[in-house]
């Protein structure tokens, strides 16, 4: 059997007393040798500073698949050609993000070995690596877990974990470390209550975008692991369409970079924990580098990685809880749960803070709140309304290794989630990879998304009467043609009819592209400019991060605005923007300019408004579609009269 052959190869290297490096050859194709002409073969352990020689032979292009300190890596001949005299670890670093382990290296087995065979193979690898009680934790995360994922379609984590514990003293650590407070969480803008056109599915999962579950060990660094290694990595995998676990893990982000900057200054042992709100703020402003560049350690020097980290910032984030903590009412929790489902169904991973108990283990948490282990940070990566005969559950990615729970994951029923959820945050990732030039696009490279360089915005607006009818709008050609011109004082649309005082109506707007949306209102009597959306009193986020059309109603789906007794003209402006706007500055500028509402708003948005040829407005309804290479905002002005 194939597994027996590999077992023999691995066992033959157990006699090595001191290993200067740990680069285990998993597979070789073609002719590859060391500098002394010794052939490189499966099972070899090669030093970091070794120089490999790739020797093409006819139609065979050499390649080698390695289990390296940076992950499972495939090095091809063309990679070698670019760095022909590089040391092995330099080649690994240059290719770890480039080549797909899934497509370049086929698995050793057509069918998985059974649990006993997998245990034997992992045991042989442990002996080859010189495993003992003192180093087993590091070896498990760096070598053994990646090896299992790359070699077995379905690793038997429980059986492998039992062997590691019995023979090498490996222990699953269940450290916590989230310190989220109500004040910190309430300061985060909340996700707006929206109505989606698409049906919210009964179940959705981001599990295929997850890396191998991480292992925070005995440190209180769960916030760094869940934020960077979990949430940020999943978001990156979604953006880049990575679904092979080995490839995703090779491009996982560094928990050290995040935790070192959000921990307390006197937390020298990385044991006190930190808050998920600090983590998302840091990832937005400073970004985060790859774990393969900055491996996990406590009190690391971050300076060499700060510049690269800025390439991987998140765009923004939103709080999903209707109310912080476990004191939410049934109605509030249901809104929170709907927000969680909406985020997951829109492919947004969720960073969350929970209360953690000693019973938090198994495939499904039993919901027993025994010994409180403190606050813990986790990732919510899926939900299923049908779980456990309709009780419903979310699925969680933890940072306690694949040997905990169900391969590193656990289900928590909705009713139990309500009793432990402190806060949940979704992230908005606008970072996209650079497009590959045609010569580099090959079937054996990691799949990428070619960047769409245009900033796209799509939206609509309507005024809905209490009887359900929409006020008819007519496009104003002068306003459309002069959208960017500050000397053009014209509405984009005018409502065709005048309506009597005391008419009840509701404002509705939609967005079909991720955008920041703002709604301002005033009247011809120069009343103060009012921000109708987002609601500042409730700290609602202006970000509508949805790939399908969503609708926002003001005041809401059950209430209306009533026209006052004073006849006149009312003005509205809905602003769609790809970037967040300083609305306090804009409102102050509009209010104090002494100019008309239209002119003042245009001046406040100077340089941001798209060109006339970059936007198309519908003729008979308030609707537009825009795409611009440089400009980021579309203001839509609506005028209506009441008598």
From TrEMBL:
SMART domains, alphabetized: Pept_C1 (SM00645)
GO terms for MF: cysteine-type peptidase activity
CDD domains: Peptidase_C1
InterPro entries according to UniProt: DUF4384, Papain-like_cys_pep_sf, Pept_his_AS, Peptidase_C1A_C
Superkingdom, natural source: Bacteria
One Pfam family from the record: Peptidase_C1
GO biological process, one term: proteolysis
SUPFAM superfamilies: Cysteine proteinases (SSF54001)
Gene3D superfamilies linked: Cysteine proteinases
Peptidase C1A papain C-terminal domain: residues covered: 200-428
Transmembrane region(s): none
Name listed for the protein in its UniProt record: Peptidase C1A papain C-terminal domain-containing protein
């Amino acid at each position: 059997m194939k597994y027996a052959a590999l077992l023999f190869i691995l066992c033959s290297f157990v006699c090595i007393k001191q290993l200067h490096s740990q680069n285990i050859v998993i597979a070789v194709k073609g002719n590859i040798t060391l500098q002394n002409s010794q052939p490189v073969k499966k099972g070899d352990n090669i030093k970091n500073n070794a120089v490999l020689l790739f020797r093409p032979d006819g139609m065979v292009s050499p390649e080698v698949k390695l289990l390296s300190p940076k992950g499972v890596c495939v090095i091809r001949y063309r990679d070698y050609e670019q760095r022909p005299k590089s040391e092995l670890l330099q080649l690994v670093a240059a290719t770890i993000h480039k080549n797909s382990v899934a497509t370049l290296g086929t698995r050793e087995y057509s069918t998985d070995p059974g649990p006993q065979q997998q245990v034997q193979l992992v045991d042989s690898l442990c002996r080859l690596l010189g495993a003992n009680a003192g180093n087993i934790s590091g070896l498990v995360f760096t070598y053994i877990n990646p090896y299992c994922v790359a070699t077995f379609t379905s690793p038997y984590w429980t059986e492998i974990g039992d062997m590691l514990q019995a023979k090498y003293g490996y222990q699953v650590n269940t450290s916590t470390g989230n310190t989220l407070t109500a004040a910190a969480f309430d300061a985060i803008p909340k996700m707006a209550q929206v109505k989606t056109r698409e049906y919210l599915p009964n179940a959705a999962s981001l599990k295929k975008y997850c890396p191998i579950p991480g292992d925070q060990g005995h440190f209180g660094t769960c916030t760094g692991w869940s934020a960077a290694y979990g949430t940020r990595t999943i978001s990156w995998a979604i953006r880049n369409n990575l679904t092979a676990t080995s490839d995703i893990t090779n491009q996982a982000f560094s928990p050290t970079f995040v935790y070192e900057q959000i921990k307390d200054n006197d937390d020298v042992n990385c044991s006190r924990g930190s808050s998920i709100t600090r983590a998302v703020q840091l990832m937005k402003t400073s970004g985060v580098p790859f774990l393969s560049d900055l491996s996990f350690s406590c009190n690391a020097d971050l300076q060499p990685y700060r510049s690269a980290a800025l390439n991987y910032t998140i765009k923004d984030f939103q709080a999903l809880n209707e109310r912080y903590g476990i004191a939410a009412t049934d109605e509030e929790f249901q809104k929170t749960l709907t927000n969680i489902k909406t985020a997951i169904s829109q492919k947004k991973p969720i960073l969350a803070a929970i209360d953690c108990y000693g019973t938090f283990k198994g495939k499904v948490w039993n919901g027993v709140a025994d010994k409180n282990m403190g606050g813990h940070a986790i990732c919510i990566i899926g939900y299923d309304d049908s779980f456990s005969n309709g009780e419903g559950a979310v699925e969680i990615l933890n940072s306690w290794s694949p040997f905990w729970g169900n391969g590193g994951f656990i289900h928590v029923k909705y009713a139990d989630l309500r009793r432990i959820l402190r806060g949940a945050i979704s992230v908005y990732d606008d970072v996209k990879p650079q497009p590959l030039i045609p010569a580099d696009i090959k079937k054996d490279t990691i799949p990428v998304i070619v960047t769409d360089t245009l900033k796209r915005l799509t939206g609509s607006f309507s005024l809905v009467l209490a009887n359900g009818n929409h006020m008819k709008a007519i496009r104003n050609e002068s306003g459309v043609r002069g959208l960017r011109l500050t000397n053009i004082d014209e509405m984009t649309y005018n409502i065709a009819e005048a309506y009597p005082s005391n008419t009840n109506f509701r404002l509705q707007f939609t967005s079909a592209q991720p955008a920041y949306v703002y709604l301002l209102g005033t009247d011809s009597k120069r009343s103060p400019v009012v921000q109708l959306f987002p609601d500042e009193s409730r700290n609602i986020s202006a970000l509508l991060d949805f790939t399908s059309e969503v609708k926002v109603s003001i005041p809401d789906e059950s209430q209306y605005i009533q026209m006052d007794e004073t006849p006149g003209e009312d003005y509205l402006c809905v602003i769609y923007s790809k970037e967040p706007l300083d609305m306090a500055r804009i409102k102050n500028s509009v209010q104090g300019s002494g100019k008309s509402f239209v002119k003042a708003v245009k001046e406040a948005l100077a340089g941001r408004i798209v060109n006339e040829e970059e936007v198309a407005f519908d003729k008979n309804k308030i609707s537009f579609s825009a795409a611009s290479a440089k400009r980021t905002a579309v203001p839509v002005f609506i005028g209506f009269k009441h008598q």
